[in-house]
Each structure stands twice: as structure tokens, then as C-alpha cells.
């Protein structure tokens, strides 16, 4: 296509098929033909040195040979030649299309010879004997006329090429170029109109422009197509929709650069200071197709205000619609509801099935939630697994409660993700305008606070905002700030709960438990602040601190010459998921000179299902380093014998909830017996936690669990007290080296 256009343009520029034009600066070449040597020599002598190229021929055949071989501007021809007559030579010139003027010189007095020569196109006829001045003047006139004729042909060729060029450029333009007369009827339109709109030039010429314009744009088009102004005042970049012919079934959008020019009688306008008023007779315009650009702008605009995954309004559009709903509610003195929805257990689905399935779940949830809404309600995706809803024109709070109940009900049915049946629920917070806030941000913030209240109460429900919730939310902010300050000011401390071998009565290990020496509230247990640390993103820096604190405490014990005791630490799932966890652990052990065999990490069963392959890789690295691994709270989560084979587990801890059920040392407690049997069968070490009574201790010992921790033996104690206890029991004598225990 490009090559064809380039070839066409080259053809126009080169002027193919145009007649050959002679160089006006070249010396004219003359052919002198006469069979009398004296006359031929005299003629040659007369014309030489006058700026001519002279060639002579003494016969007709010689003249024909020269004419066939060379180009001549002028032939001085004698009619009476011995072989071929002058008339026959002129016939040859005409037949061959030789471009040369002919002056005939003849001694014949008859009129027929002269008429015959002039009929054959001779420029002039000179009768011998002719005067010297007459010949020279005739030759000069003939060559002058020839130059004028050549100049005319050159100008005509240039004009023809210029017109071809104009036609080519206009018809090859990517824009529609048109002219209208003073009545608004087309007087010219290029081929682009057919390519874009399907209308031929013949269908448009003489027709009014309105046949092309979309009905809704006719009023604006009237000013564009009837434009009379010129220069900067002319219409620029006016967007109109033009109709398409059958077969072009979509309206296209055009940006018109219209220029009105006043012309003189030959159709051109030349600015003249003396001209006071020019008569308007038409409009010239250029229409550029911007349909694709407009569609792209629409797509970009849509994507800027919608969530690409679910096709729901995003937070920007939601705030805009909520703002309009607030204005309307204020005008009508009515109520509206704002809901904040957070999906429960979505992260578990994302971690176990992957982000692709998580995205599919969000799409299905969006469809279900949308089906519960009334006309005029707005459902939007805030991001992640969070959705927001505005319910305008509430009759009362029950309307919002009914829709929230519908949401919870529609989410109860399982979701099918390519064969995986998934169950989720939602926590919904509701804020009512104007009672719970009059601004957009206030309503959203209060709905969010109500949602977190549902989360705290067990999830899968809805709650209306109440002012008392703001106090709880404020307390969380204060707690977060205080916890950050505790890290900075060294208010955290490690306590240790000893683990006892019931056969020897000796301490064989200890579980590290974190405490917070709060300036106002005193000593806080881990359960009072670590769950919040998980929510607020503080678990990572706290875990970093814990590893360092454990290593520093163990260094203090080792330097005091104490017996080798293995200390265990509880590992947060968030911390295990972090890519540099292993390097953090190894770096701390190297920095403090702690043997990895003195460390045991405790993980919960949930770690094993979040990202099992990654967890296996991280735990294998620890084991290769020499750190052992224990399963904490075994039997309370997603218990599976499969992960006991796949994961590098060394120890199982019996959860205290099972131990508390032991009230009779002669009773039957199948769950505990099953866990003991599993540990024995897999060759794993076993620790019972939460042992508080002699009955519990005797039952566990009788059934094979020989390592215990709990208030029956020791409460969690500070490092100083723990070291004192270890020193007090003295060195082990004849006792097997203590096995490391998880806590």
C-alpha cells in the first residue's frame, strides 16, 4: 500500500506521459539540405558563427539519415533534390513525429509547390534567390516561435502536474476535505468521504450538508458549515457526529477545522488593502475522523472510575455517587445508609488456591451482592476483599438491615472455583446519614468501625455504628502508638515457662513468652497485645525483636556456664511468610554465638495450609541449620497426618484445651490417647501444655506423655528467675541430656 502510494506520487512528480521539453539554454541545431554544393556551402557560411549547430545534407537520403539520427530545431530544405523530393522529406518528418520547424527554399515559381509545403506544416517558404537579410530574419523568427511554443508547453505541463499533485494530495488525505456553496450544499468532496462514510462524490455534490449530520448535532453543525469568518476567528476543532451510509453502521465523530475564505471571480482570495468588502460564496472545511480516539477516551474514562476485575464502580466513583446521595438526602430531609463489607476467610482462599482463584471468587461475590440491591443503590469495590454500598432514600433502618441480611444469606451457598467448593462469609458495618455522620469521609469511617466490631465479635454478621465504637477504635489507635513506643523504649521482655521431665523432675526446656511492661497498665501477657500486632502490621518488627532477645538471654545463660537447655519461640505466620525470615534467624544466631540446636520454633497448623510449599522450604532451611520444629496446639486446627509426613516436624504439643478435660486419672480421653499414639508411631517428641493438676499429670504420665509444662510446675518467669531455678536444680548426674522442647 505504501509502496503503491509512493510510486503514484513519484509518477505525478516526474510527469510521466508528458511531452519531451527541450532545454531553452541549448544551442539550436539546424539541418541544411541542398543538392547544389555551392549554394549549400554559401548557406553554411552565412549561418555559421551565429550560435547555431549546423549539419549539412547534399541529398534527400542523407537528410533522412540525419533526421533519424539527430534532433533538430530547424530544417532549411530545398524542394528539388535528385533522389527524394522535399515534400517527401516533410512527409517523413510528420509521420515520425519529429519535432522540428521547416523553412522551404525553392527555385520553383509555381504556386503548387508552396501550397504543398505549407500544407505539410512548413514555417515559411522562401523563393530562390532570397536575400541574406530575409533568410536570417526568417530563421530567427522560426526559432523564436519555437522557443515560445516550448515555453507554453512547459507551463502547461507544470500546470497539469500541479493539478495532478493537488488531486493526489487531496484524495490521499486521511481527512475529509470539502467545499460548500453559500447555500450549504457540497461543491466538492474528496474520496475520503466514501472511505469513511460510504457516500460517493456523486451522492454528495449538490446535496445539503445536513444529510450527513447526526440529528442531535444539527444545531452546532449550523455554525460550522455556514462559517463565514476567516483567520483566527474561524471555527476550530468542533466535534460533530456524521452519519454513515448503509454498510457503515456506526456513527463516526469528526473534529472539523473549518475556514471561510472570500474569493475573487476565479475562486481565489488575495488579500488587498484596497478591498473593503468581499462577497461570501462558500465554505472550505477539513473533517478529521476522531471516532477511535473518542472510543479510547471513553474506555480510559470508564476504567478511571471502575474496578477492572469486578466491573463495579471504584472508590472514586463511589465517593462521587455518595456525595450526590448526601446532597439529595439533605434536600429531601431523608436518610441513607453506607455499608462497609469485608469478606471473611478470603485470605485463606487466596493463600491456598492462589490469586487467580481469589480473583474469580471476588467476581462471583460481586455478582451475588449486586443481585440483592435495589435500583438506585450503588455497590463498589474499595480494593482487596472490601466492598462499599450506598443505599439512598431509606424509609427506616430496617431497610438497611434487610439488605445486609440478604447479603449474608446470598454468601452462604458455596462458591465453585473450578471444582473447588469454597465457603465464605462477610462482616458488614452500617452507618446511617445524618445520625452517624454528615460527610462522606465520616460515614465511610464509621461504617468501617462498625465492620471491625463485627470482626471482633466472631465475623459473619452486620452491625450498625454506635458512638461507643468510636471509643474502642480510638483505644486501638492509642494501643498501636503505645506498642510502637514500647519497641523503641525497650518495654518488651521475654518470660520463660519451664518444661519438666516428669521422670527426673528436672527442667529440660522452656517456652519463650513475650510480656509488655506497660507504663500504666503494668505487665501485659502476649494475648493482650499480639493479636492487635498481627492486625496492625507490627508483628514483623516485634518478631525481629523477639529473636534478638532470645539470643541475648541464651548468651547470658551460656556465659554463666549453665547446662544446655533448648528454648522455643512461637513463630507468627506473617513472619514465616516474609522472605528474609531465615536470614534474620541465622544472622542473630551467628551474631550472638548461639548453637542452632538450642532453638526450637513453634508453628501452628494454619501455617501448613497458608502456603504449604513455601513453608516447607523455609522450615527445611531451619532444619538444615540445626533448628528443630514443633507443632503447637495440635488437634485444634486443620489436623492432618499428611503434613506430619511432609513437614520437618520434631515435636507435637498437646493443646491445653484437651488437657483441661482430664478430670479422672482412670478416665478415657480418646483425643489425647490418639495424639500420644501418633507421636509414638511417628517417633516424635511429645509435650503436654497447660498441666495444672496432679490428676492431669498422672493420667498423661500413665499413658506415655513424659514432658509437661503448666502452672502445676511453673508459671512463666523472668530470665533472672529462670536462671536461678536452673542453678538451683544443680548439674544433671546420670541423666540423659535433656531434649529440646517446644513452647
Automatic annotation (TrEMBL):
Keyword annotations from UniProtKB, A to Z: Phosphoprotein
UniProt keyword Methyltransferase, yes or no: no
PTM annotation (4-aspartylphosphate): residues: 78
Superkingdom classification of source: Bacteria
Signal peptide span: none
Every Response regulatory domain range: 29-143
One Gene Ontology MF term: catalytic activity
Protein name from the UniProt record: EAL domain-containing protein
Organism, scientific name: Massilia horti
Amino acid at each position: 500500500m505504501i509502496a503503491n502510494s509512493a510510486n503514484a506520487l513519484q509518477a505525478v512528480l516526474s510527469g510521466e506521459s508528458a511531452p519531451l521539453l527541450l532545454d531553452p539554454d541549448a544551442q539550436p541545431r539546424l539541418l541544411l539540405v541542398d543538392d547544389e554544393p555551392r549554394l549549400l556551402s554559401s548557406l553554411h557560411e552565412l549561418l555559421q558563427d551565429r550560435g547555431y549547430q549546423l549539419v549539412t545534407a547534399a541529398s534527400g537520403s542523407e537528410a533522412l539519415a540525419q533526421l533519424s539520427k539527430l534532433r533538430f530545431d530547424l530544417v532549411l530544405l530545398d524542394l528539388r533534390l535528385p533522389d527524394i523530393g522535399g515534400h517527401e522529406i516533410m512527409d517523413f518528418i510528420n509521420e515520425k513525429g519529429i519535432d522540428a520547424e521547416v523553412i522551404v527554399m525553392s527555385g520553383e515559381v509555381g504556386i503548387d509547390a508552396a501550397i504543398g509545403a505549407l500544407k505539410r506544416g512548413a514555417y515559411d517558404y522562401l523563393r530562390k534567390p532570397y536575400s541574406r537579410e530575409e533568410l536570417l530574419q526568417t530563421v530567427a523568427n522560426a526559432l523564436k516561435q519555437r522557443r515560445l511554443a516550448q515555453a507554453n508547453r512547459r507551463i502547461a505541463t507544470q500546470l497539469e502536474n500541479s493539478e495532478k499533485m493537488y488531486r493526489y494530495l487531496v484524495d490521499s488525505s486521511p481527512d475529509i476535505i470539502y467545499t460548500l456553496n453559500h447555500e450549504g450544499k457540497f461543491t466538492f468532496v474528496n474520496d475520503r468521504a466514501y472511505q469513511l462514510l460510504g457516500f460517493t462524490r456523486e451522492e454528495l455534490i449538490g446535496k445539503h450538508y445536513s444529510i450527513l449530520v447526526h440529528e442531535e448535532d444539527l444545531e452546532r453543525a449550523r455554525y460550522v458549515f455556514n462559517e463565514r469568518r476567516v483567520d483566527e476567528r474561524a471555527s476550530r476543532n468542533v466535534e460533530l457526529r456524521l452519519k454513515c451510509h448503509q454498510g457503515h453502521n456506526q456513527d463516526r465523530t469528526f473534529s472539523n477545522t473549518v475556514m471561510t475564505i472570500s474569493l475573487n471571480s476565479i475562486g481565489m482570495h488575495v488579500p488587498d488593502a484596497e478591498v473593503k468588502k468581499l462577497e461570501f460564496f462558500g465554505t472550505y472545511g477539513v473533517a478529521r475522523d476522531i471516532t477511535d480516539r473518542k472510543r479510547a477516551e471513553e474506555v480510559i474514562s470508564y476504567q478511571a472510575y471502575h474496578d477492572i476485575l469486578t466491573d463495579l464502580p471504584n472508590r472514586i466513583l463511589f465517593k462521587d455517587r455518595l456525595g450526590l446521595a448526601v446532597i439529595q438526602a439533605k434536600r429531601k430531609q431523608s436518610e441513607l445508609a453506607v455499608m462497609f463489607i469485608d469478606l471473611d476467610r478470603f485470605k485463606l482462599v487466596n493463600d491456598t488456591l492462589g490469586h487467580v482463584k481469589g480473583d474469580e471468587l471476588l467476581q462471583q461475590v460481586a455478582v451475588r451482592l449486586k443481585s440483592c440491591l435495589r435500583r438506585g443503590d450503588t455497590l463498589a469495590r474499595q480494593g482487596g476483599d472490601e466492598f462499599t454500598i450506598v443505599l439512598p432514600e431509606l424509609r427506616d433502618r430496617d431497610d438497611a438491615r434487610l439488605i445486609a441480611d440478604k447479603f449474608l444469606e446470598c454468601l452462604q451457598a458455596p462458591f465453585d472455583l473450578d471444582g473447588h467448593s469454597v465457603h465464605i462469609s462477610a462482616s458488614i458495618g452500617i452507618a446511617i446519614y445524618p445520625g452517624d455522620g454528615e460527610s462522606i469521609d465520616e460515614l465511610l469511617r464509621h461504617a468501617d468501625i462498625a465492620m471491625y466490631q463485627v470482626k471482633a465479635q466472631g465475623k459473619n454478621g452486620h452491625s450498625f455504628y454506635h458512638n461507643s465504637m468510636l471509643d474502642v477504635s480510638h483505644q486501638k489507635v492509642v494501643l498501636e502508638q503505645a506498642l510502637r513506643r514500647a519497641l523503641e523504649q525497650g518495654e518488651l521482655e521475654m518470660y520463660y515457662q519451664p518444661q519438666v521431665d516428669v521422670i527426673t523432675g528436672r527442667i529440660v526446656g522452656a517456652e519463650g513468652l513475650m510480656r509488655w511492661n506497660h507504663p500504666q497498665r503494668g505487665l501485659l501477657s502476649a494475648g493482650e497485645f499480639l493479636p492487635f500486632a498481627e492486625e496492625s502490621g507490627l508483628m514483623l518488627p516485634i518478631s525481629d525483636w523477639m529473636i534478638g532477645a532470645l539470643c541475648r538471654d541464651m548468651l547470658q545463660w551460656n556465659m554463666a556456664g549453665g547446662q544446655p537447655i533448648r528454648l522455643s519461640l512461637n513463630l507468627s505466620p506473617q513472619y514465616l511468610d516474609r522472605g528474609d525470615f531465615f536470614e534474620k534467624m541465622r544472622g542473630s544466631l551467628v551474631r550472638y554465638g548461639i548453637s542452632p540446636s538450642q532453638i526450637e520454633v513453634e508453628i501452628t497448623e494454619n501455617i501448613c495450609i497458608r502456603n504449604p510449599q513455601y513453608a516447607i522450604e523455609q522450615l527445611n532451611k531451619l532444619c538444615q541449620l540445626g533448628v528443630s520444629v514443633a507443632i503447637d496446639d495440635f488437634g485444634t486446627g486443620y489436623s492432618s497426618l499428611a503434613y506430619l509426613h511432609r513437614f520437618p516436624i520434631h515435636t507435637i504439643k498437646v493443646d491445653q484445651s484437651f488437657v483441661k478435660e482430664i478430670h479422672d486419672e482412670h478416665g478415657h480421653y480418646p483425643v489425647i490417647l490418639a495424639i500420644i499414639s501418633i507421636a509414638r508411631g511417628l517417633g516424635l517428641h511429645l509435650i503436654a501444655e497447660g498441666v495444672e493438676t496432679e490428676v492431669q499429670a498422672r493420667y498423661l504420665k500413665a499413658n506415655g506423655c513424659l514432658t509437661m509444662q503448666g502452672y502445676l510446675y511453673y508459671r512463666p518467669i523472668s530470665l533472672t528467675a529462670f536462671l536461678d531455678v536452673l542453678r538451683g536444680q544443680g548439674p544433671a548426674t546420670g541423666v540423659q541430656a535433656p531434649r529440646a522442647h517446644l513452647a
